[in-house]
Write a structure and sequence with these properties.
single chain; 337 residues; alpha+beta; Trna Endonuclease, Chain: A, domain 1; five-stranded mixed beta sheet; two-stranded antiparallel ribbon; 13 helices; 13% strand; elongated
């Protein structure tokens, strides 16, 4: 008599799911799905230490192998992934990660599909492609913390991408804005236009600082509270408009990190994620190529922060509208960061 036979593939699959279940934090909610042929095996809801169920959902594909081999740089690849599967992952409304289970030592490694795609790992038109895994991206406590960090970044990516684009587009007015504000009397109240420009830059900064530099900037309401405090100390009538004393405090607080954020964003758009950003923001990419930000270098601080070029910048407001042409013959040197 013939009977169904349990094949090795099904055994490995069940075992790898058991290993994944044991490796992920106990408080996470794992939802296994029955239809796995399209590239997703599990949906996992990430639960924080406070136990709150906040809807932080991630899609996982589970792969397994007898042993994962890393090279001297701590890198490993998994070949044979269908490009149609990648297209499916890209279209999903939640971040997608692939887990690679080492059946020999029961360790789990992960890769972030969207992040690696932006880096150009999967470009090409071959029928299949390879996934890249990093030795540090595992299911250890440190690896899980990194997993959460990259998940949150993917969840916020539309906001991050918007801040990258807008900060690069408005970077040329940052220096003149800095000069105009620093030259004002601290007791004066700034105009609504100046305040809006400052807040716009600060909001780009808070997003980029948090997700590109992994820092924790002050929230904007804290600056409004500080502004009321300054008004009370000076005996002035309370107003939502910032005093230039506060404006200068804000600029001293964030301008250095913000410039680092812009340099990081500039490098992403023009180098490390060039193809991705060209497909998303072709006009920005072309503009940066034709008219690079020439004041990404240390000269920016001398010119704008320390005002060492005062004889050249008597009318900084003009710099909002003028392109520099005097550096065109040495652009290759001036854009190096």
């Amino acid at each position: 008599m013939d009977f169904p036979k349990r094949i090795k593939t099904h055994i490995s699959e069940s075992r790898s799911f058991d290993i994944v279940s044991k490796s992920l934090p106990d408080e996470w909610i794992i939802r296994e799905i029955t239809e796995r042929d399209y590239g997703i095996d599990l949906y996992v809801e990430i639960i924080g230490d406070n136990g709150l169920v906040t809807g932080d959902l991630v899609a996982l594909q589970v792969k397994s192998t007898k042993a994962v081999h890393f090279n001297g740089k701590g890198k490993s690849t998994l070949s044979g992934i269908k490009r149609t599967t990648l297209n499916y992952w890209i279209g999903l409304p939640v971040p997608v990660f692939v887990l690679l289970v080492d059946l020999s030592d029961e360790k789990v490694y992960w890769c972030n599909i969207d992040s690696d795609r932006r880096l150009g790992y999967y470009k090409g038109d071959t029928f299949t492609f390879s996934l890249k895994f990093n030795l540090q991206q595992d299911a250890s406590k440190t690896g899980i913390n990194l997993f959460i960090l990259t998940y949150i970044r993917e969840k916020r990516w539309p906001d991050i991408e918007n801040s990258i684009e807008k900060s690069l587009m408005s970077y040329n007015n940052l220096g003149p804005l800095m000069l105009m504000c620093s030259r004002q009397n601290s007791s004066e109240i700034c105009t609504t236009t100046i305040q809006y420009l400052l807040i716009q830059h600060y909001e780009y900064y808070t997003t980029l600082s948090r997700y590109l530099l992994c820092k924790k900037p002050k929230y904007l309401p804290e600056w409004y509270e500080r502004n009321l405090q300054i008004h009370e100390e000076s005996g002035a009538n309370p107003t939502l408009n910032f005093s230039y004393q506060l404006v200068k405090e804000m600029l001293d607080y964030f301008i250095g990190d913000y410039r680092d954020c812009i340099i990081c964003a500039y490098e992403m758009v023009t180098n490390s994620q060039r193809d991705y950003f060209f497909s998303r923001m072709p006009y920005l990419s072309i503009h940066l190529k034709l008219r690079p930000h020439t004041f990404l270098l240390e000269d920016w601080y001398a010119r704008y922060y320390y005002d060492e070029y005062e004889d050249e910048t008597q009318h900084p407001e003009k710099l909002f509208f003028d392109d520099f042409s005097e550096f065109d013959d040495i652009l290759e040197e001036t854009v190096k960061t």
